[in-house]
Amino acid sequence: MPSKAALAAAHAAKDKGSQNDAVLKKCGDHARRKVDELFQGTGIELESSRLIANTPKFDKKELRVGRVLGRGAFGVVREVSGITIEHVSTHKSDRTIRVRDSDEDIYSEDTEDKQYMSANYLRKEKNHKGEARYAVKQVCADAKTDPAKFIQALMDFSVETRFLSVLQHPGIINMRAISSGDPFDKDYFIVLDRLYDTLEK
C-alpha cells in the first residue's frame, strides 16, 4: 500500500496537472480572441474557414510520429512514420462544420483523403521508395511551460493554418491535414508534406 507521503505527492501532482491544464485553456481562449481580432473583416476569414472545413482531420492517436526533423521557437516538426484511421464518420451531422458568421453548413468529405494518406504515407517513387511522405508540426513542450510563449505559439499555428489553407504555390509547402481537435488546444497539429530538398539545392 502506498505511503501517506506518496499519496500526498500523487494528489499534488494531479492538482498541479489540473492547474496547468486550466492555465493552458485560458491561454488558448486568449489566443483565439487575438486571432479573431486579427482576421475580423478580412476576406481570408470566410475563405479559410471554408477550406479548413474540407481539410482532412486526424486524431492524435491516428498518427505514428518518428524522428525530429526540425525545431523552431515555438514548434517541433517530426516525420510521420505511420497512419492508422481509427474511425471515419459516415453521418453527415458528425462531420458538418458551421462557418463562423454564416448560416451555411459545410459537409466535409474527408474520407477518401484520409484513406489515401493512410495507404500512401510512404513514398513509392523509384528514387524515394520507403521515405516518409508527410511531417507533423506541433507546439513544442518548452512553449507550453511559458504562458506568453504558448499564446504566441497558438496564434502562429492558427495563422499558419489559415494561410496555408488558401495559398497554392510551388514554393509554398502544402498542408495536407490538421488535428481534429480545437486549433487552440495544446495538442493541435498540422500535417505537411515532408521536405527533402532545400532552396539551396
TrEMBL record:
Gene3D superfamilies the record matches: Phosphorylase Kinase, domain 1
Example of a GO MF term: ATP binding
Superkingdom in the source lineage: Eukaryota
PROSITE patterns cross-referenced by the UniProt entry: PROTEIN_KINASE_DOM
Residue stretches of biased makeup (Basic and acidic residues): 12-21
Stretches for region Disordered: 1-21
Residue span(s) of domain Protein kinase: 63-201
Compositional bias annotation for Low complexity: 1-11
UniProt cross-references to InterPro entries, sorted A to Z: Kinase-like_dom_sf, Prot_kinase_dom
Protein's recorded name: Protein kinase domain-containing protein
Species of origin: Pseudictyota dubia
